[in-house]
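4.2 Preliminary Data

To establish feasibility before requesting continued support, the project team ran the inverse folding procedure on a target of 421 residues. The structure was first converted into the token representation described in Section 3, and no sequence information of any kind was made available to the design step. The complete token record follows.
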């Protein structure tokens, strides 16, 4: 038996041991439009257009109910019981598998993206993302929570993945999360991941939602010996590098893959915090036709004031994020200060409603407001998680990450391409 096979079997055994200690008692997921009292509302009527349904729902919401519907990871908050609207917990990391606690079984954990990128095999990436999307649906239905020391609530159906930042400095510290240093390769990875995760059996609805991260020019955690870190770093990027290096992967996933989510990063871009930058609306939504949602990284809205000092108050930070195009706040800032921004005339409630529209649109596109009898995604079995087929795919993809490049001379030369002499 080869060393590779023995190593693979040992890794699978280790995962099984970890899984047995990481189980979680499933909690059934609540559902909108599930009672005679709420089915009467037009937003529950699948015969109406999506636009009509979303506007009807927004028109029935009270202003104070809106901020928590635009806040990530605050479950069980965010429900509107009087309308039969359950909470929805935005966020689930899926960089190389659903990073959750275990339901009846634990999710498949694939190789890290830096290894998968080295395979140059986007068929495997697409297949991996299909497994992740289906397993996410199953684990979501089981009410499984994120695998986090803070005991985060149950998963959302939006993966805060893939990470398609450019890896050109080994000191970054998150190099394992990204496919590589090449913008084209990263774009092909992002496209394969996006289409695999979002497109499933039922073409009427999204299987799950990607959230491309981190927008943009983000590849620094901190600089030792200084006070510069990812929360206050200001990336100065010229137009050439912006177009040639930092955006091609995002563009491929959005324009060709129809990605439905983007995460803005902690850092500033040319003196403007990315979650308040007009690039979100002008480039993503304007130039590329992006029709999804934008979430902040966790706490990034607060960084607009507290770390970048771009504005002086928290309501001003919320207003800047809303104007920039950030629909979801992964943090507590929208909850505490979004309506203050409205009352202080920094933004209008119509600005809030525009972001809320984009947020709710994703939930409708996931089929969360439609009858479930004929929706396959509402009937995904726990048995689809960590199947022998997904384990075989995982083993194949992992074996292909073992890449040895031949250091051949360039044409017409006897000197190796990489000359270490």
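Position-by-position output of the design step:
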């Amino acid at each position: 038996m080869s060393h590779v096979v023995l190593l693979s079997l040992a890794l699978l055994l280790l995962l099984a041991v970890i899984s047995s200690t990481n189980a979680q008692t499933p909690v059934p997921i609540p559902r909108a439009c599930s009672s005679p009292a709420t089915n009467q509302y037009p937003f529950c009527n699948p015969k109406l257009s999506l636009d009509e349904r979303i506007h009807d729902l927004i028109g029935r919401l009270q202003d104070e109910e809106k901020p928590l519907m635009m806040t990530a990871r605050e479950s069980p908050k965010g429900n509107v019981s009087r309308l039969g609207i359950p909470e929805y917990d935005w966020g689930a990391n899926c960089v190389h598998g659903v990073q959750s606690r275990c339901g009846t079984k634990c999710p498949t954990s694939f190789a890290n993206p830096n290894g998968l990128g080295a395979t140059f095999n986007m068929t495997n990436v697409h297949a991996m993302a299909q497994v992740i999307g289906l397993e996410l649906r199953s684990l979501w239905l089981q009410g499984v929570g994120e695998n986090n020391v803070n005991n985060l609530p149950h998963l959302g159906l939006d993966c805060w993945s893939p990470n398609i930042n450019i890896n050109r400095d080994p000191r970054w510290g998150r190099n394992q999360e990204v496919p590589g240093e090449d913008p084209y390769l990263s774009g092909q990875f992002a496209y394969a991941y996006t289409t695999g995760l979002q497109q499933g059996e039922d073409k009427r609805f999204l299987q799950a939602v990607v959230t491309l991260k981190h927008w943009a020019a983000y590849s620094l955690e901190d600089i030792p010996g200084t006070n510069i870190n990812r929360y206050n770093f200001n990336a100065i990027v010229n137009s050439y590098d912006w177009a040639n290096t930092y955006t091609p992967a995002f563009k491929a996933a959005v324009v060709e893959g129809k990605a439905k989510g983007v995460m803005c990063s902690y850092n500033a871009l040319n003196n403007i915090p990315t979650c308040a930058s007009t690039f979100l609306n002008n480039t993503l939504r304007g130039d590329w036709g992006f029709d999804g949602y934008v979430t902040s990284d966790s706490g990034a809205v607060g960084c607009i004031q507290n770390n970048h000092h771009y504005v002086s108050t928290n309501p001003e930070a919320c207003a800047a994020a809303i104007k920039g195009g950030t629909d979801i706040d992964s943090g507590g800032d929208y909850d505490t200060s979004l309506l203050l921004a409205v009352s202080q005339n920094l933004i209008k409630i119509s600005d809030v409603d525009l972001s809320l529209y984009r947020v709710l649109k994703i939930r409708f596109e996931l089929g969360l407001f439609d009858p479930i009898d004929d929706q396959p995604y509402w009937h995904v079995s726990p048995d689809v998680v960590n199947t022998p087929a997904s384990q075989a795919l995982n083993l194949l993809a992992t074996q292909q990450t073992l890449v040895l490049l031949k250091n051949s001379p360039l044409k017409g030369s006897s000197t190796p391409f990489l000359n270490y002499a």
